[in-house]
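User: Assemble these into one structure.

Assistant: Restating your components, then the assembled model:
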Amino acid sequence: MAEAPFQYSGLDRLFHERARLGIATALAAHPEGLPFTALRDLVGLTDGNLNRHLKVLVDEGCAVVEKDRRQGRARTRVALTAAGRARFQAYLEALEAALREAVAAAAAADPSSAPA
Amino acid sequence: MDPWQRALEEVAAIRRQLAAARFRAVSPRLNLAFAAASLLLALWQVRHGVAEGRTFARQWGALMLAASTSVAALALGLASRLHGAVAGALLGRAARDLAPFAAAGTALSAALWRLPDPGPWLLPGLWLLLVGLFGFAVRDRVPPPAVAVAFWYLLWGVLLALAGSGGALSPWLVAMPLAIGQLATAAVFRQAQADG
């Protein structure tokens, strides 16, 4: 059966969740990764919640959590993997396509609101 | 700005951030050393007169092999400093990208090496050509200006292969494109590392 036009199967559930979208977006800006505490502050999650969402991303091979021993003391560092970046990129493409369709639908329903 | 448009722009901004993860673990100092070594080898060859294709190719091959091995060895160390937790993934990807070019280079080099002159004279051009093709193959994963360096090597690879098909090459004809290419590579990666 052909996919329904508004099925949006490209919207990967892994990232289509508010907390994990925030984590992936924060990490996208830092290819070298972020310290756990910095990431926690950026996404506004508790340690427990962040750990829970990171475990989901790590289990899917989309993130790595490792001890970073630079600057003398060990800190936990989190980063997207290459596979995670590719998968997040695909998710963003699907999200962008959905948004564009929404813009077009809104413009069709109310031509006066269409962007110039 | 209407909220739809703002959402679209935010998505586009995140995508740009994702695209910015490019391999930067190349030591500009090593590129400069390789450029200097190329010029020194050309000077040595001019002074001693290298007339035999296999000797000429062996010396340039040894220099390029030493440079490639050093670049790879230093990249292992630099990658963890520059790329942190994703270093392993980036290095693995780089190795997978390089493998077909290394295999093709080895096979073609072995075939040309066995041929009588001018076969071995074609080798430096072939190696530059492969470096250029490799640069194009990884253009999305290295700093964007690196594609100009890839084009430089590709162009000189073709020119050197054509010149080599006629027999003896001037050592400077190999050294100059190599040295300029390495200087440009050093500049590209130095800037990329400074930009973070």
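Chain A touches chain B at residues 25, 28-29, 31-33, 64-66, 68, 70, 77-83, 85, 88-89, 92-93, 95-96, 99-100, 102-103, 106, 113, 115 (CB under 8 Å).
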